Amino acid sequence: MAGRLLSQEQSLKLSQQEQVQRQAKSRKYGVLGVILFLSGLLLGTLMSDWASFRIEVKAEKAVVLRESLLEDRVDGNGQLVGLEERRDVEERLHGQDEVGSVVTEKRAQEEAVDEDQGSSDAAAAAAADGGEEEASTAGDQGKEQPTKKPKEEEVRYYADWAGWNETASEKKARLKEEAKLEQQIEEMRRKVALEDTAATVRQHALDQIALGKLEDKLRKSRGLRSKPSSVTEAVRKRKYELQRKAYEEAIKPRKIILDPEIQHIVDTFNGSLKPPRYCYLSPKGNHVQPKEPEAEASKLVRGRAEGRSLLRKKQKQPKSKPPASKRTKKFKERAKAGDIVSLTLEQAKEILQIAAEKYPCMIMHRDCFNQSMEDKYQLRSWYENAYFKTSKLGWEWRKNQLEDFKKLRLGTCAIVGNGDNVLKGKYGGEIDEHDFVIRYNVITKPYWDAVGKKTDGLFDKLNYIGTKYAPDVVPSRFNIFPKYVPQELDAESLPNKKKAMIYGMPVLLDWRKDSTRMLHLFQQAKHTEKKLVINGMSKIQHASGGFSRVRAIVELLRNGLCERVDLYGFSSGGGKYFMPKKLVSNAHPINGENYIYRLWMATGIHGKLCVYGN
Predict the structure, then answer these.
(1) Which stretches are tagged as biased composition: Basic and acidic residues (predicted)?
(2) Read out DSSP for 56-84?
(3) pLDDT tens-digit series, residues 133-173
(4) Which of 570, 573, 595 is nearest to 584 (CA)?
(5) Looking at the domain assignment, is residue 266 inside a domain?
(6) How far apart are CA 245 and CA 249, in angstroms?
(7) CB contact at 8 A, 434 and 440
(8) How far apart are CA 496 and CA 479, in angstroms?
(9) Nearest to 207 by CA among 225, 228, 193
(10) Residue 481: what pLDDT?
(11) Which span out of 44-48, 60-64, 453-457 was modeled with the highest average pLDDT?
(12) Which of 69, 357, 441, 589 shows its CA 20 to 30 Å from the CA of 194?
């Protein structure tokens, strides 16, 4: 009995010992498991961070490669990268990206563009000296529907898109805003599609601009940027070729026969740009200061005649020109005479011979349909096709939509440009002394002391409508050369419902050819001819729209409608008075235009014309 109890006690002790050992072993393995789990978690975190780092590095490399080969479209030798090469790079980058949709493409099937249509559009632009946006007549007015543009590729530039770093709440707000934009775009597209473009051509253009802005806003929100398709590239190249041919044709010399008294002024011109005495008096007899030639000549003597803007004062002098302290006597004499240093008298006379040409009916009026003008320009058929194609109104009513220049008198006239040189001169009071003030439809109120308040005629453009520089003026008498003229010359859709003065497009085209020739001679004399590449596209330098507008108003002076014409805000460089940092495009040889303005002033060859502001 005692032995049995002892064996039971021993077995109990052994089982307790085994249980203690098992618990100790379990704790040991538990601790080891925790250690292994934490080690694995740490290792996983490190590997995840390393993978993210590798993806970010590859993405950054993709950005650098894309921006160098796609955005700039230039290779290491400064040559444009071809379209096929850019696509190869784009596809290679798409294959390399590992961040989901780093570069998502919507490559729409490119629509075929009729070659004849593209050629005719490009030819029209070429005839207009590089597709000047201000032309407002034949080509634009005769069309009821805008030409359909080829589709464009949309490429996502993730590096430029804030959406990659947005929070969940920011993404939700962005998507909500994009939904609203899509709805607005759809409504605007329906409105544009239903508009009668023949009746409300100006409003139709404004709605198209608004639609484009909404679409741009939506693309920006989604991180997309438009890139021209191969069809667009082909049309642009074709357009450039036609412009080049038109340019080469325009610069060929042609014989210009002037009236004897005008020819005498050209022959006796001595090269001086000194303003006449009447330019030193305002319309009310106050003393004013026109643009003097000496100040500019001295700048040119210092070496600024070789194609550099007169306002870039910080540029170093070229070594080929003598410094100010060592100028020769010849340089000083020519500066005192007011002549442009790099223009000889013969070259100046050659330009003046063209600048003295007259362009009757550059502004359309009732007397433009005489036999001589019909024989040369067929103005009546152009006028009716452009503005009365579907009209049932009779000829007399159509003709009477134009002004009678025999009766119209405007008094003293002023043209206010957008050049920033008006800010220093503060010409507001002087400008408002004129009987008839013409200006662009841009902001004026913060700059009244510089540009004045009065607005009798308005150059109606659409560039700044819908921006903070939008116009705050309307014309009291005429809308002059509006971008879009309604059918039957109906003024209801024009600013302040005032009548339009319109270009005579066939005559305007003659002027543009001659202006191209003049500016070519000026640049040739100064050795400033340039081959331009803007945004990857070849461009030909051409006259600005303001040059044609001023020349057309000069016809009012020649016809006796204006007693004198004074120019303000037409500088030879710089920016706009409401946007000084926006410099004049290199596509326009603006210093050549300014020289011709001063030729007109100095010679009085078209009448009393004065230029103000340096």
Answers:
(1) 141-154, 289-309
(2) HHHHHHHHHHHIIIIIS-B-TTSPBPPHH
(3) 444 444 444 444 444 444 445 555 555 577 777 888 888 88
(4) 573
(5) yes
(6) 6
(7) no
(8) 9
(9) 193
(10) 92
(11) 453-457
(12) 441
Contact 289, 280 (CB under 8 A): yes
* CB proximity list for 583: less than 8 A, separation 6 or greater: 309, 573, 574, 575
Residue 325 has phi, psi (to 5 degrees) of -75, -15
- Domain presence at residue 475: yes
Nearest to 471 by CA among 485, 481, 456, 459: 459
Question: Does the pTM exceed 0.70?
Answer: no
Q: Which residue has the higher pLDDT, 48 or 374?
A: 374
Q: Which pair of structure tokens corresponds to residue 291?
A: 């643009």
Contacts of 444-448 with C-beta under 8 Å, sequence gap 24+, read 444/471, 444/472, 444/473, 445/472, 446/578, 447/422, 447/423, 447/577, 447/578
User: What tens digit of pLDDT does each residue of 413-443 get?
Assistant: 999 999 999 998 899 999 999 999 999 989 9
What are the structure tokens assigned to 45, written together? 């975190």
Q: Other C-beta atoms within 10 Å of 313: how many?
A: 9
Residue 12 in domain: no
Q: Are the CB atoms for 458 and 478 separated by under 8 Å? A: yes
CA contacts within 13 A on the Cβ side of 356: 24
Smallest CA-to-CA distance from 448 within 460, 465, 431, 466 is with: 431
Name the percent of the chain lying above pLDDT 90. 39
- The answer to the question of residue 21 being in a domain is no
Alpha carbons 271 and 293: distance in angstroms, whole number: 11
State the total domains in the chain.
2
**Among 255-269, 448-462, 522-536, the least confident range:** 522-536
| Amino acid identity for residue 103 in this structure | V
Q: Pinpoint the alpha helices (H) of 128-194.
A: 138-142, 168-194
Banded pLDDT at 49 (limits 50, 70, 90): confident
Which comes out higher in pLDDT, residue 173 or 115? 173
Q: Check if the beta carbon of residue 265 is closer than 8 Å to that of residue 272.
A: no
Contact 188, 210 (CB under 8 A): yes
CATH number of the domain that residue 459 is part of:
3.90.1480
Query: Of 38-52, 170-184, 570-584, which has the strongest mean pLDDT?
Result: 170-184
As a whole number of angstroms, the distance between CA 287 and CA 411 comes to 19
Helices 590-603 & 505-526 angle (0-180, nearest 10): 100
3-state per-residue secondary structure call for 86-137: HHHHHHHHHHHCCCCCCCCEECCCCCCCCHHHHHHHHHHHHHCCCCCCCCCC
- HEC per residue, 244-295: HHHHHHHCCCCCCCCCHHHHHHHHCCCCCCCCCHHHHECCCCCECCCCCHHH
Range of the domain at 588: 248-312+347-356+408-612
